[in-house]
Amino acid sequence: MALSENVVPFKYKDEIVNHIPKVFIESEDGSEDYSWFLNAPSFSTFRVNVEKYKVQDLVNVIEKQLLEEAETKNKCPPKVFIHKIINDCIVVSRWNHNGLEKLWEYDVIVDVACANAVLRGADIFAPGILSMSSNAMIGDKVNVYADIEKNCRRGYNKKFTGKSLLISTGKVKITRDQLFKNNATVRGVGVEVDWNLSGIPKIKLPDDAGLLQNFPSIVCGHMFKNITGNVLDMCAAPGNKTTHIASILGDKGEVTALDKTKERVAKIGRLCESLGVTNVKYYLYDATKCISENANHIGPPFMTESFQAVLLDPPCSALGQRPSLMNNISPSQLKSYVFLQRQLLRSAIKALSKGGLLVYSTCTITLEENEEMVSWALKQFPEISLKSVEPSLGYPGLQNSSLSEKERELVSRFGLPRGSSVDEDTIGFFIACFNKNI
Ligand SMILES: C[S@@+](CC[C@H](N)C(=O)[O-])C[C@H]1O[C@@H](n2cnc3c(N)ncnc32)[C@H](O)[C@@H]1O
């Protein structure tokens, strides 16, 4: 079920659209169309922890679960398969349904972040619930709406009349009283989803089996296939790519992971532990300052040219994350990322040994943070050269950027609103690879 409601998913639409390449919002008749932002990619992708599980075994587990669910739902199950090139990636298609209807007496209102997650196959966790009909008891069925204009107060106890969108139906697991009484902070699943608007299924696997990861992010990990030695992951939390690179390196190397935020660094540790990844060292550190001429101890800052490969997956405007029912990013916030990304690139190039590989990736779609960042880096640092993204999946860089035709072919853009395969219908993402000249 595709969403093309009358929803403009940007609070500061007029300013933000100036930064969005036309291909993402212009429909064939030239009118504005935001459906790419509103809809989730058609496939879920699960990156298998191949140290512990066989990919085919997990395919069988997911297939069995979906088959059982299909019998109760009286529908054909989604397809489950291993990606033909990215062999640690399981692809799951969606349920086919014709949309949702208000079916039940009771309503639940959730915030936009929660709604975006639900549309990607998540249950509804308590912190995302803003309002629930007061008579809804555990086990009752509810209609779930997204508060798309962010007008619903947490704990609101009347019928919500603001702009909302029916995104799922499900079963109550935590009552209104438990959620909101005495400003309670309740965790866990508040509503178990049975149908969501996107048809993206829930996938239930053990914690150590791997993780749901966007397809281009999984591809990004594969850039490190031929690396031996030390890899620096400069902006690493929560560690999704760190743990993937570590698993790809195996006993051929180690990942040093940095992040500037304490709580997020802790997440890297927890993920390594849960996946059983041991070749990662992680530090709370500002990656713009992680290289120093006089570094002389274990841990950051490090000596120049001490890493065989570097991943720079910096903070970005994240406009490629979809679905996004409403994005409050302000124009000044949007513009702020380029400065930090350039600073981080400077450190990345210092960190890299001669002949080493630098991978730059973002989950955004602006030219400034992608193609133009690459051409800035090529001009600024004559010691690096662009290298093709291998395996070459996705689309070339966009036209009308400062990259030459040849350079456009070397970088990868994911998620242009064109094709419908798992390689094409993804979040918006960008990967560029550089070599440091010998
Ligand atoms: C796009 S996220 C990284 C996602 C991560 N690579 C993954 O795949 O799990 C960007 C991260 O950069 C971190 N960050 C922001 N500024 C930083 C800095 N100066 N040094 C290191 N990390 C920074 C943020 O805390 C955030 O966790």
UniProtKB/TrEMBL annotation:
One of its GO terms (molecular function) is RNA methyltransferase activity. GO terms for biological process: RNA methylation. Residues 231-437 form the SAM-dependent MTase RsmB/NOP-type domain. The active site is at C363. It holds the Pfam family Methyltr_RsmB-F. S-adenosyl-L-methionine binds at C235, A236, A237, P238, G239, N240, K241, D259, D286, D313. It comes from the Eukaryota. The keyword Zinc does not apply. Gene3D superfamilies: PUA domain, Vaccinia Virus protein VP39. InterPro entries: MeTrfase_RsmB-F_NOP2_cat (IPR049560), MeTrfase_RsmB-F_NOP2_dom (IPR001678), PUA-like_sf (IPR015947), PUA_sf (IPR036974), RCMT (IPR023267), SAM-dependent_MTases_sf (IPR029063). Keywords: Methyltransferase, RNA-binding, S-adenosyl-L-methionine, Transferase. The keyword Protease does not apply. PROSITE patterns: PUA, SAM_MT_RSMB_NOP. Belongs to the class I-like SAM-binding methyltransferase superfamily. RsmB/NOP family. PANTHER family: NOP2 YEAST -RELATED NOL1/NOP2/FMU SUN DOMAIN-CONTAINING, TRNA (CYTOSINE(72)-C(5))-METHYLTRANSFERASE NSUN6. This is SAM-dependent MTase RsmB/NOP-type domain-containing protein.
